[in-house]
């Protein structure tokens, strides 16, 4: 599959064309940011509650088979909890402690159940911050995208050469381009039951490539 951006520049005896291409593959790794946020009257109480709830979340993840190398602490903060009261202005009503984990789930097919187990562990204090589906190794699909980009460039160059009553000779230069980033693929969410939580739809991830090639023009 290819997309075409045939903006070509001509030098005497050469033709330069940029080709683009893409390929898709199903993601095999889910990256999740999950945390807790606890309110209490004192810093110590809020901090302790956040630590307890986050430990419960981590325990739930490990019970579902998530290895220690795939769970990493990603944030910790304590801040004042302020509220506006008529006639008094902004007042301190307590403190909020938050902490989060960056988690790698290597089986996207069971990821929904794993996330659901972690969310239910700490109840309303849990915060599911983000979810991203990625390829753990995109080398194969990236090579396919480069193949498509090369064929796109070659097709465009051959067309321009024919219009100029010339032929394509040797390749004089090849430059690997960085295509503009497209939309980040996200998991589709399909609502299951209230106890199971949303079901994750994997979809496909797209990898794009672009190449600029200069050919010699032959009479």
UniProtKB/TrEMBL annotation:
GO BP term, example: DNA damage response
InterPro entries: 26kDa_periplasmic_antigen, SIMPL/DUF541
Top-level taxon in the UniProt lineage: Bacteria
UniProt feature coiled coil, ranges: none
A Pfam family: SIMPL
Gene3D superfamilies: Protein of unknown function (DUF541), domain 1 (3.30.110.170), Protein of unknown function (DUF541), domain 2 (3.30.70.2970)
Name of the molecule in the record: Uncharacterized protein YggE
């Amino acid at each position: 599959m290819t997309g075409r951006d045939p903006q070509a520049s001509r030098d005497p005896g050469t033709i330069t064309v940029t080709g683009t291409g893409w390929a898709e593959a199903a993601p095999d790794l889910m990256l999740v940011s999950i945390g807790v946020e606890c309110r209490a009257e004192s810093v110590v109480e809020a901090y302790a509650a956040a630590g307890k709830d986050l430990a419960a979340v981590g325990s739930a993840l490990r019970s579902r088979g998530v290895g220690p190398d795939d769970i990493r602490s990603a944030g910790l903060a304590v801040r004042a909890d302020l509220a506006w009261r008529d006639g008094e202005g902004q007042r301190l009503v307590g403190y909020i402690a938050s902490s989060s984990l960056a988690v790698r789930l290597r089986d996207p097919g069971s990821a929904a159940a794993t996330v659901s187990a972690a969310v239910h562990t700490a109840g309303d204090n849990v915060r599911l911050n983000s979810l991203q589906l990625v390829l753990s190794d995109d080398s194969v699909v990236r090579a396919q995208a480069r193949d498509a980009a090369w064929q796109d460039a070659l097709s465009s160059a051959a067309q321009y050469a024919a219009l100029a009553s010339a032929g394509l000779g040797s390749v004089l230069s090849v430059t690997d381009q960085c295509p503009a980033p497209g939309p980040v693929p996200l998991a589709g969410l399909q609502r299951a039951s209230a106890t199971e939580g949303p079901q994750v739809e994997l979809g496909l991830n797209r990898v794009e490539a672009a190449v600029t090639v200069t050919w010699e023009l032959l009479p």
